[in-house]
Amino acid sequence: MLFLDIQMPGATGIEVARHASGKAHVVFITAYDAYALQAFEQGALDYLLKPVSADRLKLTIDRLRERLREPPADLSGLSDLLKGALGNEPRYLKWLTVPRGSELRVVATAEIDYLRADNKYTTINTRTGSFLLTSSLKEMQQKLDPAVFWQVHRSIIVNVSAIETIYRSFRGSLELKLKERKELLPVSSSHAHLFKQA
Questions:
Q1: Residues whose CB is less than 8 angstroms from the CB of residue 8 and which lie 6 or more positions away in sequence, other chains included
Q2: pLDDT value, residue 88
Q3: How far, in Å, CA of 16 to CA of 155, rounded?
Q4: Does CATH place domain 103-195 in 3.40.50.10810?
């Protein structure tokens, strides 16, 4: 079993995984999940995002125990991932893996309508459901493209493409109505400038 960070000094985790192809079950660990779907398609057992929570690690270990009866996957096709993993440009999340019962669901960030702080956790709201992440809203903000995801309130980040209407309440504050959603999201005064025309 190999737990590999994608970016390591010397050989990358992807290079090590390629050499271990068919010999070991591989779990990738990284701060970015832009390669999660491809890694799963190539046969990686799991893809852990930093910071790794104890609950999420337990889920991975449970999956490992189940897979130990089977031969390790052929990971020789990971070279395409290598090309994108080594650049220095900032990378933002394209996919999230979220727990759903005993399984993991892959959610594209484009599917996210908004994120809301929930104590030390974050609730991600999509048109098909809500998911609880163990990352804080601040941690998620650093991983999301700021051109697409705007913080509109200290506890809310919204996908700009999901906004349908901007309302002004009777008190003068702004509220957002998202496409195909009933709830209105508050915009704090410190973030109202985002919605002023240039």
A1: 16
A2: 47
A3: 40
A4: no
